[in-house]
Every structure is written in structure tokens, then in C-alpha cells.
């Protein structure tokens, strides 16, 4: 069985650089502590996970959080 961290990492990898909303990661992984899971992946596994937040346009006091892996840039010499 996959751990919560493994599920989150697999989802981020399969998104190919697209952002995944925090509630989607929480539902799939079964963890309401997505920020902590991403911190663990960053610190313990060396994964570069980017996070963006924005204000919810419907609820001004609430923030929405999105996670993604950066797209690796390939350059040719």
C-alpha cells in the first residue's frame, strides 16, 4: 500500500508541471496535512515542490493552495 507521501508524489509527477489544488491531494492521499506531507518530501526526499496560494474570490478570508513540480527545462547545445 502506498503511503500518503507516495500518493502525493505520484500525483504531482503525473500532473507534468500542472498545479493540483490542495483539496484534490487531500482527498486522494487521505491526509488533511498536505503542507506537512510536502515538507517531508522536500526535506527527506529532496523533491522540489512548488506551492502557490491565492485568495478565494468567493470567501475573502480563505486562501486556496496549489502544488506542482517544476517542469525540467531541456536545452540543446
Question: How are the SSEs placed, and which strands pair?
Answer:
Elements: H1 4-14, E1 20-21, H2 22-29, H3 34-45, E2 50-55, E3 63-68
Antiparallel strand pairs: 1-3, 2-3
Helix pairs in contact: 1-2, 1-3
What does the model show?
This protein has 77 residues and is of the alpha+beta class. The protein has one domain (4-68). It has helices at 4-14, 22-29, 34-45, and strands at 20-21, 50-55, 63-68. The chain is globular, with a radius of gyration of 14 Å. The relative contact order is 0.22. The mean pLDDT is 90.
Gist?
The protein is an alpha+beta fold. 40% of the residues lie in helices and 18% in strands.
Tell me roughly what share of residues is in helical segments: 40-55%
Hey, roughly how much beta strand do the residues contain?
A: 15-25%
**What is the overall shape?**
globular
Integer-rounded radius of gyration: 14 Å
Q: What is the domain total for the residues?
A: 1
N-to-C series of helices and strands: HEHHEE
Which structural traits does this protein have?
about 80 residues; alpha+beta
